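FAQ

Q: What does a record look like?
A: Structure on top, sequence underneath. For example:
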C-alpha cells in the first residue's frame, strides 16, 4: 500500500504547474486530493486530463487573497473530510521590476497571495492537521534564499514565507506535524513562461525543472516515516537559462 493511500491532501495552485502535477501524482498514489484554485474551468480541465483519477480529485474554488473565501474553504473541507493529512501551498504570483520604480501596489498583491494567504489557510486547517499528525509543504523559490535584481518584491514575499515555515515548524513539531520548505529554481510552468517573456529571454521548457519531477520528489519526501523530518530542500535546473 502507498503511504499516501486513503490520505486527504489539500493542494493550492492546483490548476497548473507544480500544484497540478503534484495533485495528479498524489491522486495516482491513492490520496484524495482537494484541488484549490480561483478558476473552476481550469480545475475542470485538470479533472478531464486524468479521468482514471477523477473520483479522487475534488475541485474547490477559492481566491486565497480573500480572507472570507479562505475561511469558507476551511469550513467546507472540515465538513467534507473532518481531517487533513497534507497541506501543500503551491499558489503564488510574481511581478518583476526594480525597487526604484516597481509600484507598491504590486508589492501588496504579492504579499497577500504569497504570504498572507498561506498563513491564514494554515491557521484555519492546523487543527485538522494536528489531529492527523499531518504535514505542511511550502513551495518556495530560490529567490526565498537569495534575491537577484528586479525580483525584490517577490523575493521579499518568499523570504517572509520561509520565516513563516521556520517558525511554524518549531511550534508544531511537538504535535507530530512536519513542515517542509521546497526552494525551486526555474521550473517549466506558465508563470515561468511569462517571466521569460518579460525578461526578453527565449523560453525553452526542456532546459528547466519539470513539474512532474518536482511532484515525484515531493511524494517521496512526504512519504518519509513519522520519526524523521526533512525541513528544507533546494532544487535547481542542471542547465543554465538561455540569455536573450
Amino acid at each position: 500500500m502507498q503511504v499516501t493511500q486513503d490520505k486527504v491532501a489539500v493542494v493550492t495552485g492546483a490548476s497548473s504547474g507544480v500544484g497540478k502535477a503534484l495533485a495528479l501524482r498524489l491522486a495516482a498514489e491513492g490520496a484524495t486530493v482537494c484541488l484549490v484554485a480561483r478558476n473552476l474551468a481550469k480545475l475542470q480541465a485538470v479533472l478531464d486530463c486524468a479521468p482514471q483519477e477523477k473520483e479522487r480529485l475534488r475541485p474547490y474554488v477559492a481566491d486565497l487573497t480573500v480572507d472570507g473565501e479562505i475561511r469558507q474553504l476551511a469550513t467546507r473541507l472540515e465538513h467534507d473530510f473532518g481531517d487533513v493529512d497534507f497541506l501543500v501551498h503551491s499558489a503564488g504570483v510574481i511581478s518583476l521590476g526594480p525597487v526604484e520604480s516597481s509600484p507598491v501596489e504590486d508589492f501588496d498583491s504579492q504579499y497577500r497571495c504569497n504570504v498572507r494567504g498561506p498563513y491564514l489557510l494554515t491557521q484555519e486547517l492546523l487543527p485538522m492537521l494536528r489531529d492527523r499528525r499531518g504535514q505542511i509543504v511550502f513551495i518556495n523559490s530560490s529567490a526565498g534564499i537569495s534575491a537577484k535584481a528586479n525580483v525584490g518584491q517577490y523575493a521579499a514575499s518568499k523570504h517572509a514565507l520561509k520565516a513563516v515555515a521556520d517558525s511554524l515548524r518549531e511550534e508544531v513539531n511537538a504535535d507530530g506535524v512536519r513542515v517542509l520548505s521546497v526552494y525551486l529554481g526555474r521550473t517549466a510552468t506558465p508563470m515561468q513562461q511569462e517571466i521569460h517573456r518579460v525578461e526578453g529571454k527565449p523560453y525553452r521548457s526542456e532546459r528547466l525543472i519539470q513539474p512532474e519531477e518536482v511532484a515525484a520528489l515531493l511524494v517521496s519526501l512526504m512519504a518519509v516515516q513519522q520519526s524523521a523530518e526533512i525541513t528544507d530542500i533546494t532544487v535547481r535546473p542542471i542547465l543554465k537559462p538561455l540569455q536573450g
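Q: Is there anything notable about this one?
A: The chain has a mean pLDDT of 94.
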